[in-house]
Every structure is written in structure tokens, then in C-alpha cells.
Amino acid sequence: MLKADDAKAGKKIVAIASSTGGPKALQILVPLLPANLNAPVMIVQHMPAGFTQALAARLDTISPLAVKEAAEGDVLMPGEVFLARGGRHMEAAKKRARHLIHYTDEPPREGVRPCANYMYESLADCDYDEVVCVVLTGMGADGTAGIKNLMKKKKVTVFAQSEATCAVYGMPRSIVLSGLSKGGISLEQIAQEIIKNVGVI
Is the Cβ–Cβ distance between 115 and 142 less than 8 Å? Predict the structure, then answer.
């Protein structure tokens, strides 16, 4: 595993998009990440208001990392996971030397709110050197446009969930067809790639 100096401490972030079948996939993927992961993790799971708090609590119970439903103004810290609140768009915002969670009430995009495209695009204006983007099971193409826009300003590494392990191979398929990722991989492989890319403290 990479240590903090190899991974440039505090300079990377992980951003995950998921939809149909996502809660199950997240309950496999997130527990595989170590408590000392050298990056914050943002997750947009397509869910209505009122359901994300229970999912965050469940993930927190079974994971080494601290997981919470993100609140306005939360500081993005390494080793912590921030799940978007259902029914609102979640972004990362830079304030002085820190990066914070910020919510907006823009109309649905890709037919959903929260929409991962907003999360990815907000990271373009942050100070992270690299964004590790992960697109999991789900219908539609949420994540593709946002990652394409993010790539114009940032170094981006993209991983898509394999068709064989998806409940619905829509969002990852869009990523692969767009050439943003060479192909889909298993959730266990995604966890290994995240750790390899961002390192541990």
C-alpha cells in the first residue's frame, strides 16, 4: 500500500456515483476501504429525501471509515465518507484552505436529484490534484457528462463497475462507451484501485 508521502497527503478525493442497486453495491465497496484512507469520499446515491440517513448509518456500522449523511458546511476530511442527502444536489466548495459540503436546489438533472454530474463538476474548482471517480450500478448516464467536464481542469482516474456485478449496467456502460474507463471491474477490484491511487495515512 502507498503511504501518505507517496500519495501526496490530502491532495486527492474519491467521488462515487450510484443508482439502482447502489445501496447493495456500496455495502460491499465501502467496508473494503481502510479507516486510514488518505482521501475524503463523496457519494451521490440516487435516493429520495428521507432514505439516505438510514443508508449512511448502515454503512457507518459496517465500515472501518466514518460514514455520515453529509450536512451543509461539513469539512471534507481524509478517512471520512459523505453521502449526499436525498432530494438535494451535493457539491464540494472551497473556502480558504478547506473544502466543504455545499447543497443546492437546482432542478433535477438526468432526471435525478441528487445528480452526480453536479458533484463531479464542482470538484473542478477545488484544490485537489487528482479526483478518483467511481461509477457504480444504475440506470441512465449520470456521471459521464460531469466527469468529462471535470477532466478539462483536473487529473482524473475513472473506474466503472463491471456488467456482471451490476444490478443495472447503465451508468457504468455509459462511462465505458465514452472511453472514460477501459472496462468494468468488480467492486473488490475497485476498492483495491482506490487504495492504490490515494494511499493510506
Answer: yes
